[in-house]
Please model this.
Amino acid sequence: MLGVYHLVTRKGTLVRRTTHAALAAVAVAAVATSGCGGDAGAPAASSAGTVAPNGQTATVQAIDNSFSPKELTVSAGTEVVWENRGRNEHNIIPENEDDPWRVDTADFQPGETATWVFTQPGTYRYYCSIHGTINAGMPGVIIVQ
Ligand SMILES: [Cu+2]
Model:
């Protein structure tokens, strides 16, 4: 019986060590994530699957009155640059109005640019509310892979 008891104790110790190592890895990952994404203000709870900025940029032009390209596919971590190349004022309204990358008309006048680093894979639909809705007029979509 004593031998069996010892075996269980050893196993328990081993499991605890494994757990400690896993927790340490999670802690390191959390620190790394918050260090990279801190300036984006993303809450830690939603940082799962977040990718650090990768140094790449991709451009969408707002012309009168459409986004070009209308659909843009980028890898996670890419900075999307919207340029207002039209003579009209435009804006960038995410389909999900709680998303933080909204750009108001005052900040997107002709000649101005707006940028956002998309750090999580997903499909991000948006539109210019001056010239349409999410489904018609001046919609766009960023596909982050
Ligand atoms: Cu517009």
About this structure: The longest strand covers residues 57-63. The beta strands are 57-63, 66-68, 71-74, 78-84, 93-94, 113-118, 122-127, 139-144. The chain has one helix and eight strands.
